[in-house]
Design brief:
Blueprint: E1 2-7, H1 13-23, E2 27-33, E3 46-49, H2 55-68, E4 73-76, H3 80-85, H4 87-92, E5 96-97, H5 102-108, H6 111-120, E6 130-132, H7 135-146, E7 152-156, E8 166-168, E9 185-186, H8 188-195, E10 204-208, E11 214-222, E12 225-233, E13 239-241, H9 245-257, E14 264-271, E15 274-281, H10 288-295, H11 299-308, E16 321-323
Parallel strand pairs: 1-2, 1-4, 2-3, 4-5, 8-9
Antiparallel strand pairs: 6-10, 7-8, 7-10, 11-12, 11-14, 12-13, 13-16, 14-15
Helix pairs in contact: 1-11
Length: 334
């Protein structure tokens, strides 16, 4: 029986675990988190609390954890870039690991480097962007973008979970403002005032805000070809699985240049019906279960089977469907 460890995954990994168990019942799932409670604890065979550490120290903790608990396959989410950098330490210990090589992971997890790579290798349509490391550069970038686009946004390059993301909105007052999510909006003057507190800034990416539909493509390279399932999102919670030929071609072009072996999620946004490539997450998405439900392709199980040497057939009829999910209560006290 294979033992699989998932470290500090988001709550919707509850669905990922159930999908893996559905196709590979002879498996034990070990879960962990720095917090004592998480919804996924209810579908794990074992549950542990992690220490709050980072970087190489956390990598060493992970390797020790794998060896102490007899882990056959490690599925990292937390500190994925650092773990990827020391991937050979796990493989040398006989531990299979669901993370791609550092040369790719390091590029894709720094958005400006990823954009530069995509432009250089002609992968998809890339939105205009600027990198600023001081206030004057920020002002100049905003001036150029605002002359061309209605909305401009920015965030720090080194960010986790998009916490620093802000949409520049100079009309944040009045009745209409009551219907806008204010926590992600800031006026240009307020942004300049905040950034002026530092002489040299951590790199900031400034780019146009693309207001149209978001497309999330769940991908996995297999021996039978590339799985790429696009989910088109809008303001409702209903998503459309729709196989846009231009998006699928961009995904194929991406894999030609960066042949990832592990699951990934490629994100696009439309502007004037052009799908712009926004980013590539080097892990499964939080909504992968919806792609699986609509296509009848079990990406989590296929990814696990691939690393465990289990050959699992799959077929995608590429039927367009609408899909959503329903939240249910989960009691965490065992």
């Amino acid at each position: 029986m294979a033992r699989v460890w998932m470290n500090h995954w988001f709550s919707t990994a509850y669905n990922i675990i159930n999908l893996i168990r559905k196709a590979i019942p002879d498996i034990e799932i070990i879960g962990s988190n720095e917090h004592p409670y998480s919804p996924i604890m209810n579908v794990c065979d074992e549950w542990y609390q992690e220490p709050v550490i980072k970087g190489e120290q956390y990598v060493s903790y992970c390797l020790d954890f794998c060896q102490q608990h007899g882990i056959d396959l490690f599925m990292p989410r937390r500190e994925m870039v650092s773990i990827s950098q020391y991937k050979d330490r796990f493989t040398a210990a006989g531990i299979r690991i669901m993370v791609d090589d550092y040369q790719y992971v390091s590029i894709l997890n720094q958005k400006h480097r990823a954009y530069q790579f995509f432009i250089q290798h002609d992968v998809g349509a890339i939105p205009d962007f600027f990198i600023a490391t001081n206030v004057e550069q920020f002002k100049e970038a905003y001036k150029k973008l605002s002359a061309k686009y209605k909305w401009v946004c920015f965030k720090f390059v080194h960010d986790e979970g998009g916490k620093s993301y802000r949409l520049i909105d100079n009309n944040r007052k009045g009745y209409a403002a009551l219907f806008k999510k204010q926590t992600t909006r800031i006026s240009f003057d307020a942004a300049v005032e905040a950034l002026s507190e530092k002489g040299v800034l951590s790199p900031i990416m400034i780019m146009p805000f693309l207001p149209d539909e978001e497309i999330s493509v769940d991908c996995l390279k297999t021996s039978r070809g590339l799985i790429a399932i696009p989910r088109i999102k809008d303001s409702t919670r209903i998503e459309r699985v729709c196989y846009d030929s231009e998006i699928l071609k961009t995904c194929e072009d991406f894999y030609t240049q960066i042949p990832l072996e592990c699951p990934c999620n490629i994100q696009f946004k439309y502007l004037d019906r052009i799908p712009y490539l926004l980013e590539v997450n080097t892990r499964m998405s939080g909504g992968v279960q919806m792609a699986c439900a609509a296509s009848n392709v079990n990406i989590p199980a296929l990814a696990v089977g691939k690393l465990l040497g289990i050959d699992m057939p799959w077929t995608n009829k590429k039927e367009e469907k609408r899909v959503t999910h329903v939240e249910v209560p989960v009691v965490l006290d065992r």
